[in-house]
Amino acid sequence: MVSKLSLILGLCWLTLGCAPSLYWIHESSTTPSCQPDRLPQWSDFVPRVPEDKRGAETAIRFLFHHSERRLAIAFDHEHSWVKPELVEPENHTLWRISEQLLAHEQVHFLISCLVVRQANVSLTKQDDPYKVLELTKLVAQRLNLQYDRDTNHGLNLEVQQLWEAEVMRQFQELGILVNSP
To answer: Is 11 a member of any domain?
Structure first.
């Protein structure tokens, strides 16, 4: 006999309309590598009508904190935008599109955060932090471009889910390493 949970999960996979399985892992550091220290929400984006067909864009700034000798990213509120009708969708279809697009944009943030956290783990006193920062920025940009190509900007839901799962797996593994005593 099929349990209710199995039936619900099966329906979610068939319709691909389930809420994304993304979550945030805080750092134990006093200055987190990623600001905000949470997944971005539509309230973090500026509502804007784009000149092209895209529904949203996530902008990230890469930073170096001298006092802690630590790299960081910051969500760029001024340059991150979303189509206004996706912020508070009025019907079920738009709500699903909005949820899927938000998950896609959150993975962009997670990718950049993951790369910066990995760089901080490997940064040594002998490294030139500005060279590491530039390399980190390039790696994050290339991964984000590949992510958009592979997922067709989130439209290929099957590949989107694969990326989400892999990024979350690596984010969780790194979270354990970063937060271990």
So the answer is: no
Query: In whole angstroms, what is the distance from residue 53 CA to residue 55 CA?
Result: 7
What pLDDT does residue 110 have?
Answer: 97
Query: 8-25 burial, b if ≥16 CB within 10 A, otherwise e?
Result: eeeeeeeeebbebebeeb
Contact 111, 144 (CB under 8 A): yes
Residue 2 covered by a domain: no
pTM for the whole structure: 0.86
What number of other Cβ atoms are within 10 A of residue 141's Cβ? 15
pLDDT band at 178; cut points 50, 70, 90: low
pLDDT tens digits along 105-124: 999 999 999 999 999 999 99
| Domain count within the chain | 1
Local structure of residue 68 (DSSP, 8 states): T
Name the token pair of 35.
Answer: 């600001």
The span from the CA of 84 to the CA of 163, in Å, is: 26
